[in-house]
Write a structure and sequence with these properties.
With 337 residues, this protein is an alpha/beta fold. The chain folds into 2 domains: 24-122 and 224-327, Periplasmic binding protein-like II (D-Maltodextrin-Binding Protein, domain 2, 3-Layer(aba) Sandwich); 125-220, D-Maltodextrin-Binding Protein, domain 2 (3-Layer(aba) Sandwich). It has 13 helices and 14 strands. The strands form 5 sheets. Strands 10-9-11-8-12 form a 5-stranded mixed beta sheet, with helices on both faces. It has a 3-stranded parallel beta sheet with strand order 4-1-5. Strands 2-3 form a two-stranded antiparallel ribbon. Strand 9, helix 6 and strand 10 (169-174) form a beta-alpha-beta unit. The longest helix has 20 residues, at 2-21. The protein is globular, with a radius of gyration of 22 Å.
Length: 337
């Protein structure tokens, strides 16, 4: 009896876990849209136009998830969040996924109860100054006033860096990136610090971008990526493999323009990716063409990067570490099999 009881309890737990894990996907389908937490506005990554239409690198991840789930990239509600409000929004269920330049750390993953589903941008913290300051290194910033956003890893990194280099600074703490840019642009602080990708995005929309520069120092590792709540493995898998699909598509040359024709590829992994072979979509609780829909509507990772933050955009970022592993970067997806 004891063995039977244990077996029955195990079966019940397994069944219960399955039901619980389907909750977010079921909820999203029931309401008919994905609620995606984004930044309050960061050029190239997530920003609304005058009519409230959102575009950007992180926005396209949300659109890819929507396409994977609904076959439509536009079934997304965008919820702007600050450094302070983003985690509460995710914990409370106000948003289904958070995609807004958030650094993956142990405490956020474990203590706050989140699950980072991968890295979509490898970054590091840097410093932006006015060129007329005549400074060439962050080690010359002793006594500077520094604009910094509250509720971010940059606060602790900044304190550690100045302490290690026996320097002092005066913090100018702000709530969001728009306030930080405004304070810096108006001269309320000497230096603006955040992730280098964010600095490049902010410099692009300053009144006189060419009068500002990024210092060479990178003082931290900032692996940025989307995240979901702990406890819903299926939902985490959908988010994770949507990101992986975009990376894998670039690796195999599958683009928004040729995705349909690649359904007949002789490469087995491409066929599994696009749903013409195997049952990977069914494993996720999605249709066979989930990844095909995502790639067709937003493009592969490289297309998304180039469209919003690449060298030919105002943000002007090189791929760097975010190039594919075979092109000298560290971007890498597990196999689709």
């Amino acid at each position: 009896m004891k063995l039977k009881t244990l077996m029955a309890a195990g079966a019940a737990l397994a069944f219960g876990a399955t039901v619980a894990n389907a909750a977010t996907l079921d909820d999203v389908k029931a309401k008919g849209y994905l609620d995606c937490g984004v930044t309050t506005g960061l050029a190239g990554f997530a920003s609304p136009d005058d009519e409230g239409n959102w575009t950007g690198f992180d926005v396209d991840f949300c659109r890819a998830m929507s396409a994977a789930i609904f076959g439509d990239p536009d079934k997304v509600k965008y919820t702007p969040t600050t450094g302070k409000t983003r985690f509460t929004a995710l914990q409370s269920g106000e948003v289904d996924v958070l995609a807004r330049n958030t650094t993956w750390t142990l405490s956020r993953d474990v203590d706050l109860g989140f699950e980072f589903i991968g890295v979509n941008y490898y970054d590091g913290q840097g410093f932006m100054i006015r060129k007329d300051m005549g400074i060439t290194s962050a080690t010359q910033l002793d006594g500077a006033s520094v604009c910094i956003q509250s509720g971010t890893t940059t606060e602790l990194n900044l304190a550690d860096y100045f302490r290690t280099n026996n320097m002092s600074f005066t913090p100018v703490v702000v709530e969001d990136s728009a306030e930080a840019r405004q304070n810096y642009d108006q001269g309320a602080c000497d230096v603006y610090t955040t992730d280098r990708s964010g600095l490049a995005a902010q410099r692009a929309v300053l009144q006189e971008p060419d009068t500002h520069m990024l210092l060479p120092e990178i003082i931290s590792k900032e692996p940025l990526g989307p995240l979901v709540r702990h406890g819903d493995n299926q939902w985490g898998d959908i988010a994770r493999w949507t990101l992986n699909a975009l990376v894998t598509a670039e690796e195999f040359g599958v683009t928004s323009e040729n995705a349909d024709s690649m359904l007949e590829s002789e490469n087995p992994e491409i066929r599994r990716l696009l749903g013409s072979e195997g049952n990977l979509g069914g494993m996720l609780g999605l249709e066979a063409d989930w990844a095909l829909n995502a790639i067709k509507t937003v493009g592969n990772y490289g297309e998304i990067f180039e469209a919003h933050i690449g060298p030919n955009t105002p943000v002007g970022l090189d791929r760097g570490l975010n190039a594919l592993y075979k092109d000298g970067g560290i971007l890498y997806s597990p196999p689709f099999r």
